[in-house]
Input
Amino acid sequence: MARSNSEGHWAATSRLMYIALAIWAFFSFVIHFFVNSLNAIVIFGFPLGFWFAAQGSLIIFVVLLFWFARKQNDIDSEHGFAEEE
Amino acid sequence: MATQTSRESGFLNNLGRVYGIYTGGFLVFVILVAILEQLGVPNRVLGYLFVGFTILIYAFIGIVSRTTQVSEYYVAGRKVPAVYNGMATGADWMSGASFVGMAGTLFALGYDGLAFVLGWTGGYVLVSVLLAPYLRKFGAYTVPDFLSARYNGNLARFIGVLVLLACSFTYVVAQIYATGIIASRFLGMSFEIAVYAGLAGILVCSMLGGMRAVTWTQVAQYIVLIIAYLTPVVVLSTQKYGVPLPELMYGQALQDITAREQEMIATGLAEAGKLKPHIAAFLTYDRLNYFSLILCLMVGTASLPHILMRYFTTPSVRDARKSVAWSLFFIFLLYFTAPSYAAFAKLEVYTNVIGQSLDALPAWISTYSNLDLVKIYGITLKGLGGGIAALKAGLAAGATDVAGVAAALKGAGQDALLASWSALSDPVKAVVFEAVKANPAAAASDIFTQSIQAAAQAAGNTTGKLTHGALAIDNDVIVLSTPEIAGMPYVIAGLVAAGGLAAALSTADGLLLAIANALSHDIYYKMIDTHAPTTRRLMVSRILLVIVAVIAAYVASTRPADILAMVSWAFSIAAAGLFPALVLGVWWKRANKWGAVAGMVAGFGVCLYYLVGTRYYAVGFYEMWSGLSGANDAAVTKFVELKAAFDGAAPEVKASAWKALDTHAQNIANWFGVRNISSALFGLPVGFVAIVAVSLLTKAPSKVMQDFIDEIRKPKGKELMEGGNLITEVH
Output
């Protein structure tokens, strides 16, 4: 029982890792492949492709990390592996 | 002891109040300096006040935080709350070059420069998701500690230390170099003295209190650097657009820049082929290099030991994760503002400098021309001053006309003056000669306008206006000149200097500690004298810290030419040498000792081979790998011609023929066109493949080791190390 709980914890942790890395890869690389097409869209003077490299991706990274920290805490508590307060 | 403990818990419980008072005090100090300025106190004195006052505060924190406990010295007692560790990491991370040079890089490269903004932020996602929480649970003092425990023994530890030294030492030299540059620029100190003054500032923060002292000074330094970075650009945004949010308001500036770029081309102020539109992508770096650079900087971020070890100081695994998020937030505040700095400065330069009449350039141009940082047709005030001095010496040595000056200086053995004279172009030499003949007391500022007009004529510019191609601005000028461009009082410039200094000092502190801890803990305690008592371990740490710092300062004081380029190598070295072994150590139980050793050696080796080969042995590297080079036909033909010229060159021109050949070879010595700044693109996959292949070919890790990895993966439970030693031996 303990063994499968441990495996379940690691499976959930790994899944979260893959999700986080997929978001990271998308905003680090994939979206910037399309910079020239995105630049056709201009919001508040910002060509969108430029804006994502200068600011948009950065905002996503910050939000992603706070979200990740919370999600991983939830996983740890669910499986009883969270640290005591 | 009891009083120390209660005083300390008082400090930890009141961090908000302590740093709140500190921030308020700093702002009051800035206002006081502003008042002094209005009262007519000279700028030089204000500069010393700024730098002196902030360094005194850092020193005070460093001394108050002194400690005699090993765990305080190495990991600040693991009591640093997530938010404050985030601020400390921000200061640890943002170097003097980030602070002063980042906006300038964006100014020069436009969109392509954003690879640095992305690369130096996104790496924190890897830190949090893949590494920091697990290393925290493990409970090591240093990154090599983890390698040694996970990969059974001191071999992996030793290789880890080598990689750490390779990536951290040049980096710390560059930080001390930056403190020297900033102090000499703002305070007028000589560079060499400024370097050793910076060294003192660094040592006083780290020597007595190790990680504990460095942590609390870095928090203080973060506060100074972020106030200093944001103030000028917020004021500028308010002046220009009426809203104090530069990050939102520079969209308008981007539009104006694009319009002005087209206008400059249409009116002949800029050449279409030479002007890089600010928002256009992939002009400096092609796609391959742009994305490789982002990858290498990100993975490098996640592998740099001085960053990873900051997360050893949080109270829990949960706090380590939260702390990475806060770190990125605090770093984000600066990086997300840098593009607006660049845009405002570019708009200013494009509208008020380029297209201006050559005799009516803005005053800030001459300020930075005096420091050799702004060049017009290659001419600076500093260079003209040198030329005048050289000419006078040449006349004294018997020269009678322009053509005779060089020979006269050579005859008199005045090599330095000869170099200053030869640096001037012919039309400028003529201007200087006439001016000095007419008035022996002529100063550089008197003939500046005349010189650039003469150079413009010679270059075929008859409009009398400054063109885009004639102006060269050093990257550092953008942040430094913004207060002046916006017409702000000197107090703001002093604030920026204090911020740049805080950024350089805090990064140097963190790096120095990482190096000294690796030498004292990993090499001395773990490999040489495993029974050393606590007092001796701390003594050795402090002595090594001083020795490393003095060596780094000495190297910086010699102004090594390549130091800035080598800093950007640190990311690739760390990525290729450490990342595969660290990540697989947590995420792949099958990774074993021999796999890790092979992976670190192979990744580090390939990376170093590529860096050194393409930079220092470019000709040989190209000849060996010409089949893989990204060179086009024209470049290949040129190489063949230069090589033939070198082979057939007479002995006296052999050196210059070699130089031409080597310079050209550096452009084409590569694999698939990848620049050497991204060399981890090769080292990283090699490292991963080597670990996996060798691990699978050798014995799987023992059951005990597998359980040990399971323990690292669960936040709950005790750390696996205590006082820098494993609690249960794993073999």
Observations:
- Residues 2-78 of chain A form one domain.
- Chain A touches chain B through 46 residues (CB under 8 Å).
- The mean pLDDT of chain A is 93.
